[in-house]
């Protein structure tokens, strides 16, 4: 019974958060000063005399931006429930199509990078937390990796491995002369193009996971329950096992958040490698006040972050007995 | 457990690969393909508004006339000729044999339908157009109710794409506005042009394929390239790399041509001397003519004289030296006809003549009375505010040079920066500035539009689109009115002469430097790119400029080699290799991480 109540409670909280977050996402871009349509027309060089006014009216009608704000808000929710995310001001295409076409590239890039760096980082971090000698020379490396900006490491990879050595292609998601398909040629080209951007994310991420894990392990190994185990004469393996189970909890939360934010793309990496993803779309949308793309993309972020958190809440109930007992007893 | 995780990852990877649109792989032979690129991804092929694929206008759909923006001449395209048969009727005769890509004939009905369709969409409102009359299969008459503005009408001739009535009459204009014409909607993209849209790989590339059944081969040379592929390259650095490696044939990016040429001699631009890029139109320095002392023509003239464009071109942005008219190099034809050189000699000023400029200010009584090096006006030191946008580094640079040039004249220039829309354009539109740079008034396809946008003023709302300084002269309004009504070239030249004379005498704004557009082409696979000596096409490879002459350029290129020798040994030395090398990078990194672990285990 307790679990159902726990679920219901969580669902309500998440629903309220969802409505609130989506409303904010709708409102905030519109509070930015300036008028995206005028900016768009003004950047249009090839207009004849008198054409400007006609175009401004055309686009205001098209996007419904001449209606009062409350009306736009109602329209937004009505459309949302019809599954219509709107039509991008900047790219002149349905927002849902834009996101659908860009998202696979981000997922293929970010999911392995986040998950593998999490595994490797935690492993290295746990190792460092247990062994002082290893810790002494690995920690500076972790700090170096964690403080390294993504774009900087990515640019190093592009320059040295891509351009100077010419080992791997340095730009795009696949060869310019190909069209996506399920042929071996495309898959091979895709994987070749994938390695460098993947590495640029993977290597940098390892650092921060490892630091977090190392600190947690050290903290847990000092905890009373480990001292007690030690006094009982437990093996090192057993102590580590207990410490590890506790230390991994915050890391799981971190992983969930990272995975949730995945749909926002990796802006720096995408720019440096000219990789087609959501990040660059989002950046350009923000720069040109593309309300519709912004609210659509942030909607995806809200949904996926909430979903990730929701899943974590449930997973916690299984991996953390304290959480489990709190609802079964409560 | 770990095994399962690993398996799951592999499955996910393969699964997500399958998520891509599954289209069969295709080969685009390098020697038959032109690669171009844009800094925005191809997402929409909508021919009416905001399509972002180069060539939808001009190569797929065609206008009655093509504009060659580099010479501002019209080239009859679907139309054989077009002329004013009387003062209110413009008659267009179509060429013989025009047809759609689906085989249907392109007739006068389609022309009438197209112009009306643009109005139904709300994208055009042709003032005074009363009726479009189909005289016969190949003749259309546009009948106006009053005296039409012939220059505005001229722009409609090259901006209106002719669309097939038999396809679009079944399409609701309301829906068409937001269609992307890709995917399932691509079937409506039936043009008359030399190329068809083959495919849009969403947000990555678009592919145009030659229409081998084009009506135009009767009149124009057959297009050389079988495919035109537009890639999405967002940064200048990536574009430079692609040019160096020969992966890109032509594009519009801000690159350092000189250093590119050193690394790869195949790369060309418009000029074969600095600034290399095509100089197009002047960037002008506006005066707020409603503020003192800028309301005095003599004061404006003094400032114009103190400015030295040669220095700005040398030390400032990539540019060329302007003459004193707002008509750029693209209007050289017009300038020759109106005798701009003589007019400048007679009524113009002399750039960089500080001595003379000082004399003028002295005569106006604007003198430095307290000896601090700055002249006083009405008892206050003369301080002018130059507004610009914070991201416009070329304008900031120019503003600083101008400030330095005006300092010896005894005028202090303060540079105010802010964002484009809410600071800079806001200040320009509300008249809250003293000096400002802009090109909006000069980047036009005919001299009427330049003078109209820079000098027309009726009231605060009814004024030239780029008359930021609110320059007002009734004589100019009258001349513009007369110029807008006459198709007679001799009369046009007369009015343009007088407008130019007033510009030179009144100095509503000063041309500071001739701005360039960016342009680079690679002659490894394709030659005969348009340049200064052969300006047959327009070097602006942005979407939306197709009928301004980009289409002419893409139709005019020729293969650099015979079709047999596809691989050239003279390529750049660094080419992408795969295989052995590709695993090295990750292996080294994994190895580095493993070494300490191995050592650690051994010691225990």
From TrEMBL, chain A:
GO annotation, biological process: transmembrane transport
Keyword Transmembrane helix listed? The answer is: yes
| Gene Ontology, cellular component aspect | plasma membrane
Keyword annotations: Membrane, Transmembrane, Transmembrane helix, Transport
Which InterPro entries does the entry link to? MetI-like, MetI-like_sf
Q: Where are the transmembrane segments?
A: 12-28, 107-129, 141-161, 194-212, 247-273, 293-319
User: Start and end of every ABC transmembrane type-1 domain?
Assistant: 103-312
Q: Where in the cell is it found?
A: Cell membrane; Membrane
Q: How does it sit in the membrane?
A: Multi-pass membrane protein
Q: Which domain of life is it from?
A: Archaea
What family name appears in the similarity comment?
Answer: Belongs to the binding-protein-dependent transport system permease family.
This chain belongs to the protein called: Peptide ABC transporter permease
Native organism is Thermococcus siculi
UniProtKB/TrEMBL annotation, chain B:
InterPro entries documented for this protein: CGP_CTERM (IPR027552), Peptide/Ni-bd (IPR030678), SBP_5 (IPR039424), SBP_5_dom (IPR000914)
One Pfam family hit? SBP_bac_5
**Is Plastid there in the keyword field?**
no
Provide this UniProt record's keywords sorted from A to Z.
Answer: DNA-binding, Membrane, Transmembrane, Transmembrane helix
Q: Report if keyword Membrane is assigned.
A: yes
Q: Where is the Solute-binding protein family domain?
A: 73-456
Record-given protein name: DNA-binding protein
Organism lineage = Archaea, Methanobacteriati, Methanobacteriota, Thermococci, Thermococcales
**Listed GO CC annotations:** ATP-binding cassette (ABC) transporter complex; periplasmic space
Query: For this UniProt entry, which segments traverse the membrane?
Result: 579-600
| Bias (Low complexity) ranges | 562-577
* GO BP terms: peptide transport
Q: What residue spans carry the region label Disordered?
A: 559-582
What are the protein's GO molecular function terms?
Answer: DNA binding; peptide transmembrane transporter activity
